[in-house]
Amino acid sequence: MEQHPNHLENIPRLNRIVGQIEGIKKMIEEGRYCPDIIYQLRAIRSAVKAVESNILQKHLQTCVAQSFASIEDKDKKIEELKNLFNRFDD
């Protein structure tokens, strides 16, 4: 059975993101200036990308690296990565 890496170190960052989202909801309720809201949304986007990058990096270092022990597993992981990158073209 494949062992998945632990991503618990991302929880504090995700908690901050949740707080930022709550802050944006409050800004909208208060009728704050549009660019101020957009700046905060961009900050959240950046924070989410950082979490995504951390998880992808760990996936490459553990799951993908381990799969290279078997040609069949390696081919599956390479196909998985191609699908992942094709799905998210931003």
Give short descriptive properties of this protein.
mainly alpha; 3 helices; 90 residues
Give your account of this protein's structure.
The longest helix is centred in the middle third of the chain and has 34 residues, at 34-67. Helix content is 78%, strand content 0%. The chain has three helices and no strands. Helix 2 (34-67) runs antiparallel to helix 3. It is an all-alpha fold and 90 residues long.
Q: Helix tally?
A: 3
Give me the count of strands: 0
Helix amount:
over 70%
Largest pleated sheet: none
Anisotropy-based shape = elongated
pLDDT averaged over residues:
91
User: What ranges have pLDDT less than 50 throughout 5 or more consecutive residues?
Assistant: none
In what range is the share of β-strand residues?
under 5%
Helix and strand sequence? HHH
Q: Report, as a whole number of angstroms, the end-to-end distance.
A: 33 Å
Oligomer: single chain
Q: Output the radius of gyration.
A: 18 Å
Based on secondary structure, the structural category is mainly alpha
